[in-house]
Every structure is written in C-alpha cells, then in structure tokens.
Amino acid sequence: MRPLRTITCAVIVAACAPIGKAPSIAAIADGYSIRLQATEAGGGPAWRYTITKTSADAPSLRSFVVDLGSCYSQSPTIASFVSATVNGANWLDRLVATEGVRSCRDAPTNFVKFDRLPAADSYVIEFTLDDVYAVMDSTAWLDTGSICQINAVPGPGCRRYLRTSSMDADPSLSGKSHPDINAYMRQFGFDYTENPHCSGGYGAHDDGIHGDVDFDRLFQRYVFRFFIHTDPVIDGDRCSATTVDRQRNEMKSITNNTEWAKVQGNWDEWQILEWKFKLPAGLQPTANFFHIHQLKAQDGPNNGAPTITITPRANSSGANKRIQIIHDVDGLPTAKGTIVDNIPLSDFEDEWVQVREQMHYHHNGYYAIHIRRIRDGRSLVDFRDDNIDMWRVGSSYIRSKFGLYRSLAGGQLNRSPVGQSPLLKNEWLWLSDFRVYEKNPNPTPNLPH
Q1: CB environment 49-59: b (16+ within 10 A), e (fewer)
Q2: Is residue 276 classed as helix, strand or coil in its secondary structure?
Q3: Under DSSP, is residue 78 helix (H, G, I), strand (E, B) or coil?
Q4: 3-state DSSP helix/strand/coil % of the chain, to nearest 5
Q5: Are 32 and 25 in contact (CB under 8 A)?
Q6: How far is C-alpha 440 from the chain's CA centre?
Q7: Which terminus of the chain is more solvent-facing, meaning fewer CB atoms within 10 Å of its CB: N or C?
Q8: How is the chain split into domains, by residue range?
Q9: Neighbours of 7 (CB within 10 A)
C-alpha cells in the first residue's frame, strides 16, 4: 500500500482540483459548497465530504445522496461501507440504498443515502470503505425536503485504482499561444508540441491558430479546441522534410517516463483513461486514416504504428461516414485490425461524448472502451476484449494521444500543387475533462519489456 496522502477537491460543476494543486472552495447552487478529502492522492479507503452553507437562508439538509455507480461492476456498493459518521455521530445504521419517501427523483440504482440529517450549518460526512477506490467524476443529491439539487461531485469509483492525473481547460488560456497551452498541460503530465507551429520543412503554419480554449454552453466552462487546416495553409506534420503525406495537431501524455510514469501505460499495469470530445457537424473523413485518439509505444523496435486508434472513416466518395476503432501490433499476427466498425458518425456530430478506456498492458492483455453520448446518455460504443495483445516488444511505455492526425489522402506537401483529396477541409475537435487512473503500477517503468 502506498503511504497515505490527502487529496482535497472543491466542487462547483466539475470534479477534483488537479492533484498537487491547492483547491479553493467554490459555492454551488442554492447556497452550499462541498469539499471532498480522500486518504490517498487519487482515492483511498477513507472519505470525507464537508458540506457548508454559503448563505444564511439556505435550508438545512435532510439527506445527502452519493452515486456509487461511476465504475459499473468495479464500483463500491452500500455493502462496502465499513464505517460512517455525520458530524462525529455514528451513521452506519442510518445509511439506506432505497428510494424512501424523501428521495430525490432520478436517483441512481447504486447509491448511498445519508438520511435523517440533523439541522446544521455544516455537515462533515465521513466514511471508510472495504478497499481502495479511485476518485472519479460522479454526482450527488442534496435533499432539503422541498428542493433536491443534483450536483457534479467527485466520488468513489473503480476498485484498486488511484487517480494519477486530472486536467481541464482553464479560462486563463483564452487568447494565449501554443507555448502557453503547452506549459499549462505539462503541469498535469500532458504535452502540446506536435502541431504545425514551426518553421522549415513542409506544412509550416506558424501564424495560424491550431489550439485554443472555447467557452462551452453545455458545461458552462472552458474546453480545449484543436484545428487542422487546408486553407489558407495546408498544415503538415511538425514541418517534417520527409513525412509529407499527413497532417498532425495533437496533444499527448508527456514524453517522460520517470517523473510522469503515472500517466503512461507501463508493462503489466492496468490503466483507465477518461475524456470528453465533440466533433463538429459536417466533419468529413476520407478512406485514409484520420485518428482522433491513439495509444502508441514511445520507443523500441516495434513502435511504428499505434496499438489502438479511434478513427473517423468514409468511403472514397466521402459517403458511409463512420467511427472505427483499430488494433495493431506493427504487423504481428496478434493484430486484430478493425475491432469496432460502422458506428455512424452522425451519432457524434455536434455532440459531446464521454469516453472511458481501460487497458491491461500485457501480451495477454485487456482492452475495453465505452463511449456515451452526454445529451441523452445513449451508449454509442461498448466493446471489450479479454485477451488482446496490448504491448509492443522492446518498448518501455505507451503514450496516449488526442487531437487531429490525418492523411492527405494521396497528396504530398513536397509537390506543387499538393493535390490532397478534395474531400479534405478545415476541421476542428473539442476536448475536455482528462482523467488518468492506474492500478498495479510497474515499479521499474523505464525498463523495456
């Protein structure tokens, strides 16, 4: 077990403050603030919610309901509670997992309710669980008897996992340049250097805007937005003089497996990646590659192609626009090729989706991905493979990459005219809410396997 540490999370609309950053209390609707502390950085067995009135006329709470189902079958249940107190008084025998007469509407199916709370201006709700659970984005209900608020809060998630990084866009990045975005991302174990802001080679577009932040109406906060251009400049791949048939504008987990091994995929580790993305209406893929996510070995003799990609695809005519997920191990016979296909791209256009990707980095590994549309909760992708090769022989770690990386579909930047596919046009992608979790961390992550 790792040494016990404390992570504090302030709640407003999102989840935890970034690990290692001092949080600030933020008021939420109807006169309350919520702060969470967990016994280990990223999770643990012991949890404390402090709920405080922020206005004198706020009514006292009658119950506090926490959704425990953020990690499906790996989540805790009410049976996982070893102890529970409210303002120091034993509350274990008052916990309920039934709706009851004062429950909030639309309560989840796996929840715990701290019921019959006393009248107070502040509540310290503490509990211990039967195991370590990761801090994950969840929801809670504040029930005053007449009003029931639903709020986005952090809560206990996947068993035996710990959250190792968390990154959201910040309003201070508005109008800033790509070095500022990169400096910000590096605080959380991510990097933004693979973009067309460069000189020399081909496809340089140093005066273009390829990454910024955008205020999102649905979330009422800032999110990242990435662009790739065919006009006024045909963007290239980091101004390469040799890789002239593609375009790249991606962020990635930082290329550092010492300090930041906790955000990488290392041999025999289990990792969960979560993020949200939105594709624009009218996004046009081609029959060639157009990756918006990659899991890719950083080093070793077999790191040429990504192990996993999420790829919009179309026919050569531009029709049959769909989402694919592709598995590859650099030509080895264990490659499974297209493992998800024919998911209509229209299900994603102009829609925020939540992605959860779970991996066991091993030759007899595990890969699962669930993509849920946020507007209506519809499951768009739900795939799992219990025996899949998730490692490249000779590599020491696998990076995660997010953004826009596409083929020029027959065109090359070192020709005049370039002659890229007429289907290609300016495109963009919104990204938000990056979360990284791990269990069974590799004690020697720098050693190639």
Answers
A1: bbbbbeeeebe
A2: strand
A3: helix
A4: 5, 45, 50
A5: no
A6: 20
A7: N
A8: 7-160, 166-439
A9: 24
Query: How many degrees, rounded to 5, is the angle at CA 172 between CA 259 and CA 274?
Result: 50
The class that CATH gives domain 7-160 is mainly beta
Q: Which two tokens stand for residue 14?
A: 């999102």
- Residue 171: left (phi > 0), alpha (psi -120 to 50), or beta? alpha
> 10 Å Cβ neighbour count for 146?
7
Longest Cα pair distance anywhere in the chain, in angstroms?
Answer: 77
CATH code for 166-439? 2.60.120.200
| pLDDT tens digits, 77-135 | 999 999 999 999 999 999 998 755 455 766 678 999 999 999 999 999 999 999 999 99
Distance CA 119, CA 111 (A): 23
Please write the tens of the pLDDT for every residue from 315-333: 999 999 999 999 998 777 8
Cis bond upstream, residue 23 (ω within 30): no
Q: What is the spatial distance between Cα 403 and Cα 401, in angstroms, rounded to a whole number?
A: 7
Q: DSSP 3-state assignment of 79?
A: helix
DSSP 114-126: E-SPPS-SEEEEE
End-to-end Cα, the chain, rounded Å: 25
